[in-house]
Specification:
It is built from four helices and nine strands. The protein is α/β, with parallel strands linked by helices and about 200 residues long. The strands form three sheets. Strands 1-2-5-4-3 form a five-stranded mixed β-sheet, covered by helices on one side. It is globular and about 65 Å long.
Length: about 200
């Protein structure tokens, strides 16, 4: 299967040239990195051209590389990964597009694969990646008044605000987080010789 995907990568790089800035086959999966400015053209060709025919987008996810590889990552912080499948040829492809650090913006592919609609909203909500041209880009998982993007690696684990019911006001209110940071220490209690330093008695 890896040889099959190596041939697919060769066909892709031959067809798209400089639009593909990186490619690899890992764990039997084909991966390409596409230049952000040429995403629409490449995606349309991947869907329509008979050699590739990736009719379906089965998943789309954001990626935050800010702490990748113990801080030695040198590329852009944010990326979008598109997982494509061809029903006709029975092959899969992961397409990755990198976005700018300060204001990550990537062209929407909803006009190419309609299934991208909610996936792009999810990546916008959780990572703060803006999809230019999306017909209805708004939060999908967090609340209307939510602040920040919870899948970014610099987002605090406890969040910024908490919600509770106030019996005096008779409604739900938002307030700053009152959780005190704490460190849990795992304890393992066992009776065998691995933890007591004693060998079991011979019978």
């Amino acid at each position: 299967m890896s040889e099959y995907y190596l041939n697919l990568i060769e066909s892709l790089t031959s067809r798209f040239g400089n639009a593909i800035t990186g490619s690899s086959v890992h764990f039997g999966e084909a991966n390409i990195v596409v230049d952000k400015a040429q995403l629409q053209q490449v995606a349309t060709a991947l869907r329509d051209e008979a050699e590739f025919k990736f009719e379906e987008l089965i998943d789309l996810s954001g990626v935050d590389y800010s702490e990748y590889g113990d801080g030695i990552w040198q590329g852009p912080r944010f990326a979008v990964a598109y997982h494509l499948i061809s029903i006709k040829h029975n092959h899969r492809l992961r397409v990755k597009v990198f976005a700018d650090d300060e204001m990550p913006v990537v062209d929407s592919v909803v006009n190419i694969w309609s299934s991208a609609n909610w996936y792009e909203r999810e990546a916008f909500d959780l990572f703060g990646i803006v999809f230019d041209g999306h017909p209805d880009l708004r939060r999908i998982l967090t609340d209307y008044g939510f602040i920040g993007h919870p899948f970014r690696k610099d987002f605090p684990l406890t969040g910024h605000v908490e919600m509770r019911y106030d019996p005096e006001k008779r409604r739900v209110i938002y307030q700053p987080v009152t959780i005190e940071p704490r460190v849990n220490q795992v304890r393992v209690v066992r009776d065998d010789h691995r933890y007591t330093g004693r060998m079991p008695e011979e019978s």
